[in-house]
Design goal:
The chain has about 350 residues and is an alpha+beta fold. It has helices at about 5-30, 30-40, 65-95, 95-125, 135-165, 175-195, 205-235, 240-265, 275-285, 320-335; strands spanning about 40-45, 45-50, 50-55, 290-300, 305-310, 335-345. The chain is built from 10 helices and 6 strands; from the N terminus they run ααβββαααααααββαβ.
Protein backbone atom coordinates (compact mmCIF):
# COMPACT_ATOMS: atom_id res chain seq x y z
CA UNK A 1 0.00 0.00 0.00
CA UNK A 2 1.53 3.39 -1.05
CA UNK A 3 1.13 6.70 0.84
CA UNK A 4 -1.74 8.03 -1.28
CA UNK A 5 -3.73 4.81 -0.90
CA UNK A 6 -3.26 4.88 2.89
CA UNK A 7 -4.35 8.48 3.06
CA UNK A 8 -7.46 7.68 1.01
CA UNK A 9 -8.35 4.69 3.23
CA UNK A 10 -7.97 6.87 6.33
CA UNK A 11 -10.39 9.43 4.93
CA UNK A 12 -12.96 6.73 4.14
CA UNK A 13 -12.79 5.31 7.67
CA UNK A 14 -13.17 8.80 9.15
CA UNK A 15 -16.24 9.49 6.96
CA UNK A 16 -17.84 6.19 7.98
CA UNK A 17 -17.28 6.96 11.67
CA UNK A 18 -18.89 10.40 11.33
CA UNK A 19 -21.93 8.88 9.56
CA UNK A 20 -22.31 6.24 12.29
CA UNK A 21 -22.19 8.88 15.03
CA UNK A 22 -24.78 11.00 13.20
CA UNK A 23 -27.09 8.01 12.84
CA UNK A 24 -26.78 7.25 16.57
CA UNK A 25 -27.47 10.84 17.60
CA UNK A 26 -30.53 10.99 15.37
CA UNK A 27 -31.85 7.76 16.87
CA UNK A 28 -31.62 9.17 20.40
CA UNK A 29 -34.22 11.79 19.55
CA UNK A 30 -36.52 9.39 17.74
CA UNK A 31 -39.12 9.38 20.51
CA UNK A 32 -40.29 12.94 20.09
CA UNK A 33 -39.54 13.15 16.37
CA UNK A 34 -41.43 10.01 15.36
CA UNK A 35 -44.29 10.80 17.78
CA UNK A 36 -44.70 14.18 16.15
CA UNK A 37 -44.62 12.77 12.63
CA UNK A 38 -46.93 9.84 13.26
CA UNK A 39 -49.55 11.81 15.14
CA UNK A 40 -51.39 14.52 13.23
CA UNK A 41 -52.16 17.86 14.77
CA UNK A 42 -55.60 17.80 16.29
CA UNK A 43 -57.84 20.52 17.62
CA UNK A 44 -60.54 20.45 20.28
CA UNK A 45 -62.39 23.72 20.10
CA UNK A 46 -59.87 26.56 20.35
CA UNK A 47 -57.19 24.46 22.00
CA UNK A 48 -54.56 23.05 19.64
CA UNK A 49 -53.18 19.61 20.45
CA UNK A 50 -49.84 18.61 18.95
CA UNK A 51 -48.41 15.14 18.84
CA UNK A 52 -51.70 13.41 19.58
CA UNK A 53 -52.16 9.74 19.26
CA UNK A 54 -55.65 8.59 18.41
CA UNK A 55 -56.22 5.14 19.85
CA UNK A 56 -59.27 4.75 17.65
CA UNK A 57 -60.20 1.12 17.62
CA UNK A 58 -63.51 1.13 15.79
CA UNK A 59 -64.24 -2.56 15.99
CA UNK A 60 -67.34 -1.92 18.08
CA UNK A 61 -68.51 0.90 15.80
CA UNK A 62 -69.93 -1.73 13.53
CA UNK A 63 -72.56 -2.32 16.23
CA UNK A 64 -72.24 -6.06 16.57
CA UNK A 65 -75.74 -6.06 18.03
CA UNK A 66 -77.21 -3.98 15.21
CA UNK A 67 -78.66 -6.80 13.04
CA UNK A 68 -80.27 -8.41 16.10
CA UNK A 69 -81.50 -5.06 17.37
CA UNK A 70 -83.20 -4.35 14.06
CA UNK A 71 -84.86 -7.76 13.94
CA UNK A 72 -86.13 -7.48 17.51
CA UNK A 73 -87.46 -3.96 16.96
CA UNK A 74 -89.19 -4.91 13.70
CA UNK A 75 -91.00 -7.91 15.23
CA UNK A 76 -92.05 -5.84 18.26
CA UNK A 77 -93.26 -3.04 15.94
CA UNK A 78 -95.54 -5.37 13.95
CA UNK A 79 -97.06 -6.93 17.09
CA UNK A 80 -97.54 -3.59 18.86
CA UNK A 81 -99.18 -1.89 15.87
CA UNK A 82 -101.72 -4.71 15.52
CA UNK A 83 -102.68 -4.74 19.20
CA UNK A 84 -102.87 -0.94 19.28
CA UNK A 85 -105.72 -1.00 16.77
CA UNK A 86 -107.48 -3.80 18.68
CA UNK A 87 -107.30 -1.97 22.03
CA UNK A 88 -108.40 1.36 20.56
CA UNK A 89 -111.51 -0.15 18.98
CA UNK A 90 -112.13 -2.22 22.12
CA UNK A 91 -111.85 0.86 24.34
CA UNK A 92 -114.44 2.71 22.28
CA UNK A 93 -116.82 -0.26 22.30
CA UNK A 94 -116.49 -1.01 26.03
CA UNK A 95 -116.16 2.64 27.16
CA UNK A 96 -113.01 1.74 29.14
CA UNK A 97 -110.49 4.49 29.88
CA UNK A 98 -107.97 1.83 30.90
CA UNK A 99 -108.16 0.28 27.42
CA UNK A 100 -108.17 3.62 25.63
CA UNK A 101 -105.21 4.85 27.66
CA UNK A 102 -103.39 1.60 26.97
CA UNK A 103 -104.11 1.92 23.24
CA UNK A 104 -102.81 5.51 23.39
CA UNK A 105 -99.69 4.22 25.08
CA UNK A 106 -99.37 1.56 22.38
CA UNK A 107 -99.69 4.28 19.71
CA UNK A 108 -96.66 5.96 21.25
CA UNK A 109 -94.97 2.56 21.42
CA UNK A 110 -95.56 2.00 17.72
CA UNK A 111 -94.05 5.39 16.97
CA UNK A 112 -91.22 4.77 19.44
CA UNK A 113 -90.35 1.40 17.91
CA UNK A 114 -90.52 2.86 14.39
CA UNK A 115 -88.31 5.77 15.44
CA UNK A 116 -85.81 3.49 17.17
CA UNK A 117 -85.66 1.30 14.08
CA UNK A 118 -85.15 4.31 11.81
CA UNK A 119 -82.49 5.67 14.17
CA UNK A 120 -80.50 2.46 13.87
CA UNK A 121 -80.43 2.73 10.09
CA UNK A 122 -79.52 6.42 10.20
CA UNK A 123 -76.83 5.90 12.87
CA UNK A 124 -74.71 3.65 10.63
CA UNK A 125 -74.38 6.30 7.92
CA UNK A 126 -70.69 7.17 7.41
CA UNK A 127 -69.04 10.17 9.03
CA UNK A 128 -68.31 13.26 6.96
CA UNK A 129 -66.19 16.40 7.26
CA UNK A 130 -69.22 18.19 8.73
CA UNK A 131 -70.18 15.35 11.08
CA UNK A 132 -66.95 13.73 12.18
CA UNK A 133 -68.79 11.40 14.59
CA UNK A 134 -71.32 10.46 11.93
CA UNK A 135 -74.97 10.04 12.93
CA UNK A 136 -74.50 7.95 16.07
CA UNK A 137 -76.11 10.61 18.27
CA UNK A 138 -79.40 10.19 16.37
CA UNK A 139 -80.04 7.09 18.48
CA UNK A 140 -79.72 9.18 21.64
CA UNK A 141 -82.08 11.82 20.24
CA UNK A 142 -84.60 9.07 19.40
CA UNK A 143 -84.36 7.75 22.96
CA UNK A 144 -84.91 11.25 24.35
CA UNK A 145 -87.98 11.73 22.16
CA UNK A 146 -89.36 8.38 23.32
CA UNK A 147 -88.90 9.39 26.96
CA UNK A 148 -90.68 12.69 26.41
CA UNK A 149 -93.64 10.99 24.69
CA UNK A 150 -93.99 8.69 27.69
CA UNK A 151 -94.34 11.77 29.90
CA UNK A 152 -96.98 13.29 27.61
CA UNK A 153 -99.05 10.09 27.51
CA UNK A 154 -98.88 9.67 31.29
CA UNK A 155 -100.05 13.27 31.76
CA UNK A 156 -102.99 12.67 29.38
CA UNK A 157 -104.03 9.52 31.24
CA UNK A 158 -103.93 11.26 34.63
CA UNK A 159 -105.92 14.24 33.34
CA UNK A 160 -108.62 11.98 31.87
CA UNK A 161 -108.74 9.85 35.02
CA UNK A 162 -109.33 12.93 37.19
CA UNK A 163 -112.39 13.77 35.08
CA UNK A 164 -113.81 10.29 35.67
CA UNK A 165 -113.32 10.20 39.44
CA UNK A 166 -116.52 12.21 40.03
CA UNK A 167 -118.84 10.10 37.86
CA UNK A 168 -117.21 6.82 36.82
CA UNK A 169 -118.94 5.58 33.64
CA UNK A 170 -120.22 2.02 33.25
CA UNK A 171 -117.65 -0.21 31.57
CA UNK A 172 -118.18 -3.51 29.72
CA UNK A 173 -115.71 -5.23 31.97
CA UNK A 174 -115.94 -8.70 30.45
CA UNK A 175 -115.01 -7.58 26.93
CA UNK A 176 -112.44 -5.23 28.41
CA UNK A 177 -110.62 -8.07 30.20
CA UNK A 178 -110.54 -10.21 27.03
CA UNK A 179 -109.04 -7.41 24.95
CA UNK A 180 -106.60 -6.47 27.72
CA UNK A 181 -105.55 -10.12 28.00
CA UNK A 182 -104.79 -10.25 24.27
CA UNK A 183 -102.82 -7.01 24.62
CA UNK A 184 -100.85 -8.42 27.53
CA UNK A 185 -99.88 -11.53 25.56
CA UNK A 186 -98.80 -9.36 22.65
CA UNK A 187 -96.72 -7.12 24.92
CA UNK A 188 -95.06 -10.13 26.51
CA UNK A 189 -94.24 -11.46 23.03
CA UNK A 190 -92.78 -8.09 21.97
CA UNK A 191 -90.71 -7.83 25.15
CA UNK A 192 -89.48 -11.41 24.71
CA UNK A 193 -88.33 -10.79 21.14
CA UNK A 194 -86.55 -7.61 22.19
CA UNK A 195 -84.82 -9.34 25.11
CA UNK A 196 -83.85 -12.32 22.97
CA UNK A 197 -82.72 -10.53 19.83
CA UNK A 198 -81.78 -7.00 20.94
CA UNK A 199 -79.51 -5.28 23.46
CA UNK A 200 -82.04 -3.87 25.94
CA UNK A 201 -79.44 -3.44 28.67
CA UNK A 202 -76.68 -1.32 27.12
CA UNK A 203 -78.26 0.25 24.02
CA UNK A 204 -80.19 3.27 25.24
CA UNK A 205 -82.21 3.60 22.04
CA UNK A 206 -83.43 -0.02 22.19
CA UNK A 207 -83.94 0.25 25.94
CA UNK A 208 -86.26 3.24 25.54
CA UNK A 209 -88.36 1.27 23.05
CA UNK A 210 -88.31 -1.75 25.37
CA UNK A 211 -89.58 0.40 28.26
CA UNK A 212 -92.47 1.51 26.08
CA UNK A 213 -93.40 -2.14 25.58
CA UNK A 214 -93.03 -2.93 29.29
CA UNK A 215 -95.21 0.09 30.07
CA UNK A 216 -97.83 -1.36 27.74
CA UNK A 217 -97.66 -4.68 29.53
CA UNK A 218 -98.18 -2.93 32.87
CA UNK A 219 -101.12 -1.06 31.36
CA UNK A 220 -102.67 -4.32 30.18
CA UNK A 221 -102.26 -5.85 33.65
CA UNK A 222 -103.87 -2.76 35.15
CA UNK A 223 -106.79 -3.01 32.73
CA UNK A 224 -107.31 -6.68 33.65
CA UNK A 225 -107.25 -5.89 37.40
CA UNK A 226 -109.71 -3.04 36.88
CA UNK A 227 -111.92 -5.36 34.83
CA UNK A 228 -111.96 -7.97 37.58
CA UNK A 229 -112.92 -5.37 40.23
CA UNK A 230 -115.68 -3.93 38.06
CA UNK A 231 -117.00 -7.34 36.99
CA UNK A 232 -117.03 -8.69 40.56
CA UNK A 233 -118.09 -5.64 42.58
CA UNK A 234 -119.38 -3.13 40.00
CA UNK A 235 -116.67 -0.83 41.36
CA UNK A 236 -116.27 1.34 38.25
CA UNK A 237 -114.01 3.85 39.96
CA UNK A 238 -111.33 1.15 39.72
CA UNK A 239 -110.93 2.06 36.04
CA UNK A 240 -109.54 5.60 36.61
CA UNK A 241 -107.65 4.54 39.78
CA UNK A 242 -105.78 1.79 37.95
CA UNK A 243 -105.13 4.18 35.06
CA UNK A 244 -103.41 6.67 37.39
CA UNK A 245 -101.27 3.89 38.92
CA UNK A 246 -100.20 2.78 35.43
CA UNK A 247 -99.44 6.39 34.46
CA UNK A 248 -97.18 6.83 37.50
CA UNK A 249 -95.28 3.66 36.62
CA UNK A 250 -94.85 4.96 33.07
CA UNK A 251 -93.51 8.27 34.43
CA UNK A 252 -90.93 6.43 36.50
CA UNK A 253 -89.58 4.59 33.45
CA UNK A 254 -89.69 7.72 31.32
CA UNK A 255 -87.67 9.71 33.85
CA UNK A 256 -84.87 7.14 33.76
CA UNK A 257 -84.63 7.34 29.96
CA UNK A 258 -84.71 11.15 29.87
CA UNK A 259 -82.12 11.43 32.63
CA UNK A 260 -79.73 9.08 30.81
CA UNK A 261 -80.12 10.73 27.41
CA UNK A 262 -79.67 14.26 28.76
CA UNK A 263 -76.55 13.10 30.62
CA UNK A 264 -75.08 11.86 27.33
CA UNK A 265 -76.05 14.99 25.42
CA UNK A 266 -74.38 17.08 28.15
CA UNK A 267 -71.16 15.09 27.56
CA UNK A 268 -71.37 13.54 31.03
CA UNK A 269 -68.96 10.85 32.15
CA UNK A 270 -70.42 7.38 31.37
CA UNK A 271 -72.19 5.87 34.37
CA UNK A 272 -69.96 2.78 34.34
CA UNK A 273 -66.70 4.79 34.30
CA UNK A 274 -65.15 6.45 37.35
CA UNK A 275 -63.09 9.43 36.18
CA UNK A 276 -60.94 9.43 39.32
CA UNK A 277 -60.05 5.78 38.81
CA UNK A 278 -59.11 6.51 35.20
CA UNK A 279 -56.82 9.33 36.32
CA UNK A 280 -55.21 7.14 39.00
CA UNK A 281 -54.62 4.36 36.45
CA UNK A 282 -52.86 6.78 34.10
CA UNK A 283 -50.76 8.23 36.94
CA UNK A 284 -49.68 4.69 37.88
CA UNK A 285 -47.90 4.34 34.53
CA UNK A 286 -44.17 4.61 35.10
CA UNK A 287 -42.87 7.95 33.83
CA UNK A 288 -46.20 9.83 34.00
CA UNK A 289 -45.90 12.89 36.28
CA UNK A 290 -49.38 14.39 35.89
CA UNK A 291 -52.71 14.08 34.05
CA UNK A 292 -54.80 17.10 33.10
CA UNK A 293 -57.60 18.13 30.72
CA UNK A 294 -59.18 14.71 31.24
CA UNK A 295 -62.55 14.38 29.51
CA UNK A 296 -64.65 11.21 29.20
CA UNK A 297 -67.96 11.11 27.36
CA UNK A 298 -70.34 8.87 25.41
CA UNK A 299 -70.96 9.27 21.68
CA UNK A 300 -73.79 6.74 21.67
CA UNK A 301 -74.61 3.54 23.52
CA UNK A 302 -71.52 1.32 23.62
CA UNK A 303 -69.10 3.95 22.24
CA UNK A 304 -67.23 5.89 24.92
CA UNK A 305 -64.48 8.44 24.22
CA UNK A 306 -61.64 9.98 26.19
CA UNK A 307 -59.15 12.79 25.71
CA UNK A 308 -56.39 13.91 28.08
CA UNK A 309 -52.87 15.32 28.42
CA UNK A 310 -50.08 13.30 30.04
CA UNK A 311 -47.02 15.09 31.41
CA UNK A 312 -44.11 12.64 31.31
CA UNK A 313 -40.51 12.67 32.50
CA UNK A 314 -38.14 14.13 29.90
CA UNK A 315 -35.93 11.08 29.65
CA UNK A 316 -38.79 8.58 29.18
CA UNK A 317 -39.82 7.03 25.87
CA UNK A 318 -43.12 8.77 25.11
CA UNK A 319 -44.23 6.08 22.63
CA UNK A 320 -43.92 3.35 25.25
CA UNK A 321 -45.92 5.40 27.75
CA UNK A 322 -48.54 6.21 25.11
CA UNK A 323 -48.98 2.56 24.20
CA UNK A 324 -49.35 1.57 27.84
CA UNK A 325 -51.96 4.28 28.41
CA UNK A 326 -54.01 3.17 25.41
CA UNK A 327 -53.85 -0.44 26.61
CA UNK A 328 -54.91 0.51 30.16
CA UNK A 329 -57.93 2.42 28.92
CA UNK A 330 -59.07 -0.40 26.66
CA UNK A 331 -58.48 -3.27 29.09
CA UNK A 332 -59.65 -1.72 32.37
CA UNK A 333 -62.32 0.73 31.27
CA UNK A 334 -63.36 -0.51 27.80
CA UNK A 335 -62.53 2.91 26.32
CA UNK A 336 -61.09 2.27 22.86
CA UNK A 337 -61.65 5.71 21.35
CA UNK A 338 -58.93 7.76 23.03
CA UNK A 339 -57.01 10.93 22.16
CA UNK A 340 -53.90 11.38 24.30
CA UNK A 341 -51.42 14.26 24.17
CA UNK A 342 -47.94 13.52 25.51
CA UNK A 343 -46.16 16.53 27.02
CA UNK A 344 -42.67 17.10 28.43
CA UNK A 345 -41.31 19.89 30.60
CA UNK A 346 -40.38 22.18 27.68
CA UNK A 347 -43.90 22.26 26.24
CA UNK A 348 -45.95 25.30 27.21
CA UNK A 349 -49.61 25.94 26.36
CA UNK A 350 -52.56 27.79 27.83
CA UNK A 351 -54.89 26.03 30.26
CA UNK A 352 -58.01 24.38 28.87
CA UNK A 353 -61.13 26.42 29.68
CA UNK A 354 -63.31 23.37 30.43
Amino acid sequence: MNGSQGEKLGKNLKTAAIAENHQHDHGDGACDHNHEQNAPKHSHGNHSHHGHHHGHSHGHHGHSHAPNNKAGLLIALIITAGIMVLEFVGGLVTNSLALLSDSGHMLSDTAALALSLAAMWIAVRPASSNRTYGFHRFEILAALFNGITLFVIAAFIIAEAIKRFGEPPTVASGSMMIIAGIGLLANIASAWFLMRKADVKDNLNVRSAYLHVIGDAIGSVGAIIAGILMYSFSWYIADPIISVVVALLILRSAWGVIKSTVHILMEGTPAHVNAEQVKEALLDIQGVKDVHDLHIWTITSGIDSLSCHLIVEDEKDCQVILQEAIQHLADRFQIEHSTIQIEKSQLKHSACKV
